[in-house]
Specification:
mainly alpha, single chain
């Protein structure tokens, strides 16, 4: 009898938790950019236009913090200039080094135009910002979908799911901002966010149904690998059922606006749940899929480090978002107070 021993070498994760943070924030930024551009070109008395301050605040926070996560994920952030010194147009990552600064510049430009109340410049910047947001959606989705070695990445539904979950997170974050931004006190604004969230949740449900149906009929590699992981590994079964449960709760709340429109606790719970669903999807997509061997059996064991490349990095990015948001809210309050002092006798 012969005994064959199989050894699994140690591999460093190609995508660190920084990538989860980056794709989460930049995805929300595209959703906020679309809502902001929509509000700029809407009638002033519409709910979309009234929600513009929420979109602007969210756009500023996410567009300002997303590049920080991206630089940290490069392992050697000081070498980011290599993307420009050795440009490779056939690489989506290289193209992202050009597309992202354009998007961030246009986003911050729109925020500055809104701050100074320049309707003309807001309309001028809104159109190119929409095209720039679309380029970020394409680049981030394609950056993952082109990896042929991993069937769970290499399928056309990944970019679609990334986009829809990011926009859903943008709606959820906007609901949270209604607690502090005066525009959120209008119930019409919150109701409009609820309708938008319902539409995005139903779109995600439809995409999931199409992926399962087409995968079952056509026996696509991504569906077959997902099915294998579900059957053989309890951690994947638990993850999928938790996702279904969280998605069901979010969908049920969207369908029952009376449960949360006038309740701060329920509205906060809904906003956090929508953001958590989007973040959890990215964690499973990046960190979970990297634990699936390209060749061989079993799963790689991944333990999240406690330092900057792990837990502290995740907490640090969210802390940076809170810090930027606090500064923005203080600036808005100061501006409103200064305006009232000038207008009121």
């Amino acid at each position: 009898m012969q005994i064959i021993e199989l050894l699994t070498p140690h591999y460093d994760a190609a995508w660190l938790p920084w990538a989860v943070q980056y794709f989460f924030l930049v995805g929300m930024a595209t959703g906020a950019a679309i809502m902001a551009a929509w509000g700029v070109w809407s009638k002033p008395d519409s709910a979309v236009a009234k929600a513009l301050p929420l979109a602007i605040v969210l756009l500023f926070v996410t567009a300002a913090t997303a590049p920080v996560s991206l630089l940290a994920d490069l392992h050697q952030p000081a070498r980011f200039w290599h993307f420009y010194a050795h440009l490779t147009p056939w690489s989506w990552m290289s193209m992202g080094a050009i597309l992202l600064p354009i998007f961030v510049t246009l986003s911050l430009g729109l925020c500055v135009a809104w701050w100074f109340g320049s309707k003309r410049w807001m309309r001028i910047l809104a159109i190119p910002l929409l095209f720039s947001a679309a380029s970020i959606i394409v680049y981030t989705g394609s950056e993952i979908a082109v990896v042929r070695a991993r069937p769970l990445w290499n399928n056309p539904w990944v970019p679609v799911n990334l986009t829809l979950t990011a926009w859903l997170a943008a709606v959820g974050a906007s609901l949270l901002l209604t607690l502090w931004v005066p525009a959120g006190r209008d119930i019409a604004v919150r109701a409009w966010l609820g309708k938008l969230g319902l539409f995005l949740s139903l779109a995600l449900l439809a995409v999931a149904a199409v992926w399962v149906a087409s995968g079952h009929v056509m026996q696509t590699p991504s569906f077959l690998q997902a099915l294998e992981l579900y059957i053989n590994y309890p951690i994947w079964r638990l993850s999928i059922w938790l996702s279904v449960l969280l998605g069901g709760v979010v969908l049920a709340l969207w369908l029952r606006p009376g449960w949360w429109l006038d309740s701060r606790l329920m509205m906060v719970s809904l906003g956090i749940a929508a953001c958590a669903a989007a973040w959890g999807f990215r964690w499973a997509l990046f960190m979970g899929v990297q634990g699936v061997p390209k060749y061989g059996a079993g799963l790689y064991v991944y333990s999240i480090p406690l330092g900057g490349d792990g837990l502290m990095g995740i907490i640090g990015v969210f802390g940076l978002c809170v810090a930027v948001l606090t500064a923005v809210l203080w600036a808005l309050e100061y501006k409103e107070r200064a305006y009232n002092e000038r207008v009121l006798p």
